[in-house]
Specification:
Blueprint (H helix, E strand, L loop, with lengths): L8 H6 L2 H6 L2 H21 L6 H9 L6 H11 L2 H12 L13 H37 L4 E6 L2 E7 H25 L13 H6 L4 H14 L16 H30 L2 E2 L19 H16 L1 H8 L10 H26 L3 E2 L1 H26 L4 H20 L7 H6 L8 H5 L11 H19 L14
Antiparallel strand pairs: 1-2, 3-4
Helix pairs in contact: 3-4, 3-7, 3-10, 5-6, 7-8, 7-14, 7-19, 8-11, 8-19, 11-12, 11-13, 11-14, 12-14, 15-16
Amino acid sequence: MSTNRYESPLSSRYASDEMQYIFSPDKKFSTWRRLWVALARAEMELGLPVTREQVEELEAHIEDIDYDRAAQWEKKLRHDVMAHVHTYGELCPKAMPIIHLGATSCYVGDNTDVIVMREGLELIRRKVVRVLAHLADFSDKYKALPTLGFTHFQAAQLVTVGKRAALWMNELLMDLEEIDHRISTLALLGSKGTTGTQASFLELFEGDHGKVKLLEEKIAKEMGFTAVVPVSGQTYSRKLDYNVVSTLAGVAQSASKFATDLRLLCHLKEVEEPFEKNQIGSSAMPYKRNPMRCERICSLARYVIVDVGNPAVTTATQWFERTLDDSANKRLSVPEAFLAVDAILNIWANVASGLVVHPKVIEKHVLEELPFMASENIMMDAVKRGGDRQELHERIRVLSQEAGYHVKELGLSNNLIDLMAGDPAFGMTREELSVHLDPSSYIGRCPEQVEEFLAERVTPVLQKYAGALSGEDTELTV
């Protein structure tokens, strides 16, 4: 590791080796060479003066990339693609005359970007599925454990711990649908030429439009695609980058929602992220258990969400058939979105697989608020016993304010049930009133909702992508 120059923390601290390889120079430039092989092979098969010997020579040198030599050529030529053409050609002297025949720089640049983004999305999809699996186990385990539901972060009606996890999963399923759509609709740029007219290839094939179209089909098939974009300038529309990064930002949004909820639950001491034996929560306060993993998720998610603006502005400011002010921005904004979301999902899987639930704390909080929630049921029971509904409603309003004063101003426990027991309007003993304080009576269909959601929506996805669940989660480095 170099210690005297900047290194992206996405590489040194956060992203997995697998994602880093997808956006590495080795992957990029070997894919350029695979594209040059595919072009040469298709041109040979369609009758251009390209020999099998030349194609085989190119194939033999796909991986042995001399980066120092390429840098020397780029310094001289000020053109990265031509630098690699010459570097490749020095290894393949027989094929040198036909490398890049008829193509423009975006033939290798843009097609490689599409290939790399598809592989990146496939890795993201596998990691989303792994997080779903962890959350599904958690949701099923705690589907019936009552907990306070919150609106405006004020205690509302009860939900369950597992039902809340179902909300997190539902957003991830929405993200997964978007990822599937992006993967299935990604198309190569193909071989479009300098302004997208394919004029150079039409010239090579002496006006044979059929062969020009067939050339693209052959290249796409060899690179594992079924489609090329129907029309383009020199580049594919940069809206494609925007769509992909937007999909990644959707995952980041879901992750941040989960992590924010968990940070609040950690404050309440109800649910916590895993905390290792030797982990230090604070350099100054040894007792602290800061939710640093969820904080990191939120931090990285914020970066990705803001990053969407980069391809959006790039798309909006492209000139006619091609301008180069996209290039430097793309080199940063697209790969870093992938690396950041990869890191987010690594952390999310780590947290979701080791969530710590404190049922006694949850129960304590529930019982503190339950008398207020039970008041409507108590009122209806009292009416059945002969009480006046309107009078009872008013008594509950007054007594609730008194109980609220008891809690907020005096710092004491909720005494609403004791106040009701002492009020003749209700005509009920404390024991009779306490019948209404069973938390499970106030969770509605939460357990059933979780069971149905898991069976109908989550399990089919986990079965469809069962291969993603083999092996271990990526180990966190920090």
